[in-house]
């Protein structure tokens, strides 16, 4: 009983990582044996994470990670799309140049170019349609909120 009271004072310190290695070891050893303190420790940890306490390490790390990852993944995605579209446009221009200016006889580049242009038109059409649908839906969402 008195041992548990001693450890309860240390639980918050364990969550804050303010204990000496010796104290940390002692608290962990006690938590392994004592279900009551383990429950208290879990509750304290949950409360600390809900408050989003500066003292609690993991949520703060998660926030930093999401801040770091969000723009990063956004830029990689955008640069990937830009590279694909850029390479694709260069290829089409090259094929059109061969086809029209140099009157190339190859049939495969023409088929390839035609497929890519049709594909692009389909994607463009889909994107515009989605934009229009979203635009129509958005005002209703605002009203509901
Ligand atoms: Zn205990």
Main β-sheet, in a few words?
Answer: none
Bound molecules: zinc ion
Q: What value does the average pLDDT take?
A: 79
Task: Tell me the number of structural domains.
Answer: 2
The amount of beta strand, in percent, is: under 5%
Report the count of strand segments. 0
Radius of gyration: 31 Å
Termini separation comes to 53 Å
Shape: rod-shaped
Summarize the structure.
The protein is mostly helical and 145 residues long. The chain has helices spanning 2-16, 21-33, 35-51, 57-101, 107-144. The structure holds zinc ion.
Structure description:
The radius of gyration is 31 Å and the shape is rod-shaped. Helices cover 88% and strands 0% of the residues. The protein has 5 helices and no strands. With 145 residues, it is mainly α. The chain folds into 2 domains: 2-55, no CATH class; 74-144. It starts with a helix and ends with a helix. Zinc ion binds next to α1 and α3.
Please write out the topology.
Blueprint: H1 2-16, H2 21-33, H3 35-51, H4 57-101, H5 107-144
Bound molecules: zinc ion (ZN).
Key structural traits:
145 residues, mainly alpha, 2 domains, 5 helices, 88% helix, rod-shaped, binds zinc ion
């Amino acid at each position: 009983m008195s041992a548990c009271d001693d450890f309860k004072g240390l639980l918050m310190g364990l969550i804050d990582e303010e204990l000496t290695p010796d104290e940390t070891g002692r608290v962990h050893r006690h938590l392994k044996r004592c279900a009551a303190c383990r429950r208290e420790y879990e509750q304290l940890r949950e409360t600390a994470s809900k408050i989003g306490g500066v003292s609690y390490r993991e949520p703060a790390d998660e926030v930093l990670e999401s801040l770091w990852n969000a723009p990063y993944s956004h830029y990689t995605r955008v640069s990937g799309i830009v590279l694909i579209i850029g390479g694709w446009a260069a290829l089409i221009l090259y094929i059109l140049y061969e086809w029209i200016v140099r009157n190339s006889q190859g049939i495969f580049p023409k088929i390839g170019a035609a497929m890519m242009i049709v594909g692009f038109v389909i994607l463009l059409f889909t994107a515009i349609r989605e934009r229009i649908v979203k635009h129509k839906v958005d005002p209703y969402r605002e009203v509901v909120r």
